Amino acid sequence: MRNKIIIALIKRGGEIIDDDLARLVKSEEYVSDEVFQKELMALEIQGIVHISQITKTRKRVKLINKDRLNPQLFR
What we know:
- By secondary structure, this protein is α+β, with helices and mostly antiparallel strands.
- The chain is built from three helices and three strands; from the N terminus they run αβααββ.
- The protein has a three-stranded antiparallel beta sheet with strand order 1-3-2.
- A hairpin with a 5-residue loop joins strand 2 (49-53) and strand 3.
- The model has no long low-confidence stretch (mean pLDDT 88).
């Protein structure tokens, strides 16, 4: 799941709105909102992404630390 999130971020230039990211990741297989949010939180705790609030319900997810990722994800 984390790899799918990271790959979707890379394809979108490293920055995306959380709703769009969820749609991209969930289009391949069913994932609950709870699991998706937990994975995003884990990526933020690891320092790979930064999540910032845009409005009350929308968030921006930005890939900030590409050095910690597997280089094969960028192919």
